[in-house]
Amino acid sequence: MLVDTGANVTLLRTDLAQKLQEQLIYTAPNISLKTDTGEKTEIRGKLDASIECGSRKFHHRIYVADITDPCILGLDFLQKFNFTVDLEKNEIRTGGEEIPLFSASVQHSKSCSVLVKKRTIIPARSECLIQGIPEVPGQFRYAVTDFHSQVPQKGVLVAATLVDLEKEAIPVRVLNLNNTPKILDKGAVIATCEPVVDIVARPQEFSEAQHLSSILESLEMLNEKQRRE
């Protein structure tokens, strides 16, 4: 799915729309639109559909055309449901929910290795965070670090962690099961990074202040009950 603030309407690719024949309303072939490359393509129909974006579903009218992407969220959708586009943070927001955006190439990116940023000694039978860097920076922003199966570190485990590769260093949680310290030299492969293409940050159901107030109220009720007993 592509978010395009330059598109006036929301579009669905023709082959996908044909699977929803009962909802599809065909339009006259004299209606066309101009793509960002200057080419013209015909609007083949329209339908009312439910679009899942983040943790919510939005009911919206979509136009059908021969486009490359499966779906293009246009300006009409963003304005109707009060979406805010934050290009600096590379995300869209609505109703307190933050939905990260990714470049179209992310889904086709392969995993990359994580290298030790500086020489580190992990004490025997202990767990610690070490600093890592991506072997090939700039492939994607968000990733999950995990154990690198092709470069086994005997007696060393790596925790799966969601990381932001735009940070100066990648935090890698490592567990040394050996009875002796483990030395990781600078540049050694310690983990792998798998690209993440969808992150949903759900809004808190209640604030910390409300939560604290609820706890205190429960304690007061408990103390009153104890006094009666």
UniProtKB/TrEMBL annotation:
Q: Which domain of life is it from?
A: Eukaryota
Q: One GO molecular-function annotation for this sequence?
A: aspartic-type endopeptidase activity
| PROSITE patterns listed in its UniProt record | ASP_PROTEASE
Q: Which GO terms describe its biological process?
A: proteolysis
Instruction: Extract the Gene3D superfamilies matched here.
Output: Acid Proteases
What InterPro entries would the database entry show? Aspartic_peptidase_AS, Peptidase_aspartic_dom_sf
Descriptive protein name = Peptidase A2 domain-containing protein
Biological source species: Araneus ventricosus
Q: What is the phylogenetic placement of the source species in the record?
A: Eukaryota, Metazoa, Ecdysozoa, Arthropoda, Chelicerata
